[in-house]
Design brief:
Layout: H1 2-36, H2 52-72, H3 80-97, E1 102-108, E2 111-120, E3 125-135, H4 145-162, E4 169-176, H5 190-200, E5 204-212, E6 241-246, H6 250-263, E7 268-273, H7 285-290, E8 296-299, H8 321-339
Parallel strand pairs: 3-4, 3-5, 5-8, 6-7
Antiparallel strand pairs: 1-2, 2-4, 6-8
């Protein structure tokens, strides 16, 4: 009888272990396909010569970054006049392109700060809104050519390229203020002020792309770092553009990177990760997540690659304008798909 009981116990243990193993396999498989597995393949090989459109884009973006990241330079609450000058420059350039600029102003310590918005009303689905945004302030005493002059200039250039188009969905280009400390992840973060207003107005934001620190690339190994354990999954060469979302935005991340890979011959990586992982929520898409919207960040991964992050050496000469132009051109094709 005792031997029979032992056999029954062993059998029960084996059954439980089998269930546990099956659960672990299913969980790991789900995590892999939800968080890491992206459609299509990252481009590999030599980059083709710039097209005429990419060359024109490169020249325009480089000119704007020179103004934002050198002629103006340091721009934040400590360099308030420069921050205002940047806003004035962006507003003027959008107006020159043919837009009417809406300013969302708010006050902090008796100083006025502004988010800048331009909109192309959708013809068929006007209540479905796609937002392309970037912050235009810089951190501390940094000139912020890459962080985030590259993103702000890219939003401006993409706005120019869409001004005469007639999308099905409503398309907005937004330049956010106050992403950097001390306003980062606070109620005074410009994009959070903006996203809260969207929620209050019950706006249907179907897609949000945050363009963040996009212009630094390297073909050398071990130039790309990651928070653990991502270093075991992604490449160590920092020659790609990354598409990063939270877990809720997983489907959106996959859709966007599929569009990018179908239209741009440029290396790309994507992931939908818990927002608690360092870096995942370090830009304006975080603000939209707080309001329940899908969003992702398009980035060169900033401090995980860029050696001049948040320093006085973040100047226009550090940016690879040829590769940045390829990324922005690829994003133009993505936006075409998102708003069609």
């Amino acid at each position: 009888m005792k031997e029979k009981q032992i056999k029954l116990i062993n059998r029960a243990v084996l059954i439980r272990l089998s269930y546990l193993a099956a659960f672990l396999i299913i969980s790991i498989t789900w995590l892999w396909f939800t968080l890491f597995q992206m459609p299509g393949k990252s481009y590999q090989g030599e980059l083709s010569p710039l097209s005429a459109s990419e060359t024109a884009l490169q020249e325009s973006v480089q000119k704007d970054i020179q103004i934002i990241g050198a002629n103006i330079g340091k721009r934040n609450y400590s360099y308030y006049e420069n921050l205002q000058a940047t806003a004035s420059f962006l507003k003027s350039e959008f107006q020159n392109a043919g837009y009417t600029v809406s300013e969302q102003k708010y006050n902090i310590d008796n100083q006025t700060y502004s988010n800048l918005e331009v909109e192309i009303r959708g013809l068929k689905l006007p209540n479905e809104i796609v937002i392309i945004g970037a912050h235009y302030d810089s951190a501390f005493s940094s000139d912020g050519a890459n962080d985030n002059g590259s993103g702000a200039a890219a939003v401006l250039e993409l706005g120019r390229r869409f001004v005469d188009k007639k999308p099905s969905r409503t398309l907005r280009f937004v330049e956010f203020v106050n992403e950097e400390p001390p306003f980062f992840w606070t109620d005074n973060m410009g994009s959070l002020v903006y996203a809260k207003r969207c929620k209050e107005h019950q706006e249907n934001i179907v897609a949000m792309l945050s363009l963040e620190t996009m212009g630094y690339f390297s073909d050398r190994e071990n130039t790309q770092k990651y928070p653990f354990p991502l270093n075991y999954i992604y490449p160590s060469t920092g020659n790609f553009i990354a598409f990063i979302g939270n877990v809720k935005s997983s489907g959106f991340v996959k859709d966007v990177i599929k569009m990018f890979r179908s239209n741009a011959k440029f290396p790309s990586q994507g992931a939908a990760l818990p927002a608690q992982i360092p870096g995942v929520g370090w830009s304006d898409q975080w603000s939209f997540w707080q309001q329940g919207y899908n969003g992702l960040m398009v980035t060169d991964t900033a401090p995980f690659r860029y050696p001049y992050y948040h320093t006085q050496e973040d100047t226009p000469d550090k940016i690879d304008y040829g590769r940045l132009s390829r990324v922005v051109y690829g994003l133009e094709q993505v936006i075409n798909k998102l708003v069609e």
